[in-house]
Amino acid sequence: MAKVGVLVVHVTSHGYGHMNRTVAVLNHVPAEVPVVIRCHPELFPNWRERLTRPADLDAHVSDSGAVNPMGGSGETDAPATLARALEAYREAVGRIDDDADFLRDAGAAALLSDAPPLPLAAARRAGVPGWLLANFTWADIYEPYARTAGPEMKRLVADLKGAYRQAAGVFRAEPALKMGWLPNQVDVGLVANPGRDRAKELRGRLGLGDSEKLVYFYVGRYGQDDLDWGRLASFAGRGVHFVGYHAAPVGALPNLHLVPASEWSGGDLIASTDAVVAKAGYGTMSEAMAHGRPILYPPRRGFAEYRALDRAARAWGGGVPVSSRDFAAMRIGPALDRAFALGRLAPPFHPDGARRVARHLAEHCRPAG
């Protein structure tokens, strides 16, 4: 009997949103399909925390993402981003033959990449179909910065586009940039983790009744240094309580409740709360859309994908944008009132993208016949 081929997965070392999106896909891939995940080793504990199926983890970095100032994840340091991207690209190009050999030796039947471009070039070299899962590419992110950064950076963007074009196909996850230069796109809708409405359990854990409002609060792993945390605490008097994973840098707040990520996924918290306050990243935005929860968010300067996310959130009706100044000062009372008044909404895109992608990949890995 023919063996089931291996699915090799590459995930960017930039942040946790891409990992969470890929987790949603892999948890739908049948356990009979062997999976090898290649990523930064710092992500290993998070994979083990979120995956519900077996997978081997292999340390491998082939991109660098964007550079955000510490404590200010709403901005991008363009020169530092380009410098690090060029360094990562040069290192990864030198390993393409080794990466192709890895695929052959592993018995890879398919490759999935969530953002890194060069694994797709290695897959083409190894004769393995490589698929990109994306709502944007790093070429789209870097191109505006490169326009004024000189010919070397423009060549970098062109080289990245060339690597992306070697994909056998692109799973376009909405809401997405146009990426009109990238062929073979398949629109799969929202790729989001499932969430269980555990509101009764969560309220009991926090000692809250049905009259209080619960808000999922996620502004980045390291918080935001410029937020007015005192004003956030003042919402306790209005019966508004926030729940998340990370403590305020000023210490405990009476209405900011922390829960362990090992017990409460972002999808569960979104499905169990009345609204979301978060930076506008794909993962949180797509899960808010999938679970029909209104989301408050500030603008993100220097993020090419922000426009697509903001446009889709406004068109959906569940997006409640807040100015940078008001967000930093936590003057979000009127915005919260608008969000609470919206109640539950229908998703603006097909919410089952993760299952669709998983099904396609599994078909490539199973022997024919």
Low-confidence stretches: none
End-to-end C-alpha gap: 11 Å
> How many strands?
13
Number of helices: 15
C-alpha Rg, in Å?
A: 21 Å
- Given helix and strand content, the structural type is alpha/beta
Strand order of the largest sheet: 3-2-1-4-5-6-7
Helix share, percent: 40-55%
Binned strand content: 15-25%
- Biggest sheet features: 7 strands, parallel
Shape: globular
* H and E order: EHEHEHHEHEHHEEHEHEEHEHEHEHHH
- What number is the mean pLDDT? 93
Structure in words:
The chain is α/β, with parallel strands linked by helices and 369 residues long. The chain has 15 helices and 13 strands. Strands 3-2-1-4-5-6-7 form a seven-stranded parallel sheet, with helices on both faces. The chain has a six-stranded parallel sheet with strand order 10-9-8-11-12-13, with helices on both faces. The relative contact order is 0.15. The mean pLDDT is 93.
Give me a quick take on this structure.
This protein has 369 residues and is an alpha/beta fold.
List the helices and strands and how they pair.
Layout: E1 6-11, H1 17-26, E2 35-39, H2 44-50, E3 56-59, H3 78-93, H4 96-106, E4 108-114, H5 118-126, E5 130-134, H6 138-146, H7 151-164, E6 169-173, E7 185-189, H8 199-206, E8 213-218, H9 229-234, E9 240-244, E10 256-258, H10 266-272, E11 275-278, H11 282-291, E12 295-297, H12 304-316, E13 319-321, H13 324-328, H14 333-342, H15 353-365
Parallel strand pairs: 1-2, 1-4, 2-3, 4-5, 5-6, 6-7, 8-9, 8-11, 9-10, 11-12, 12-13
Helix pairs in contact: 1-15, 4-5, 6-7, 10-11
Key terms:
alpha/beta; 40% helix
